[in-house]
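We modelled the chain as a single entity of 123 amino acids. Its sequence is:
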Amino acid sequence: MRVLVIDDDVDVADMLAGYFRRVRGAAAVSVYTVSNALERLRGGSWDVVVSDLELPDGRGTALLAAARDLLGPGVKLVLSTGCEPDVAAAACADCGADALLLKPYGLSELQVLCDELVGREDG
């Protein structure tokens, strides 16, 4: 599984990418801006894209919509935000994300969500 994590909080982005590498065995990369994310999206294939809503050079909603356009319907898109739940839900619907993670969330919540989106790899 290939996972791209975008968050302007470097510690959060790196922690999530590290989680996907260690626990899921994924090829995971963390970036911190829309522009860097777009470079990565154009340069490879991704199974899951997790993006914060507010980024220094744009909004995660526009980024996730671009990810869908670039990668097609098979990519799983997750919007992550600390804003109010009703605002977050509207943003999630607007960009066509497959799932919403409200901050703060735990890694166990991320694990369950990942299992639901891409299926559990037993083995």
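As a brief sanity check on the tokenised model: The chain has one domain: 2-118. The longest helix spans residues 10-24.
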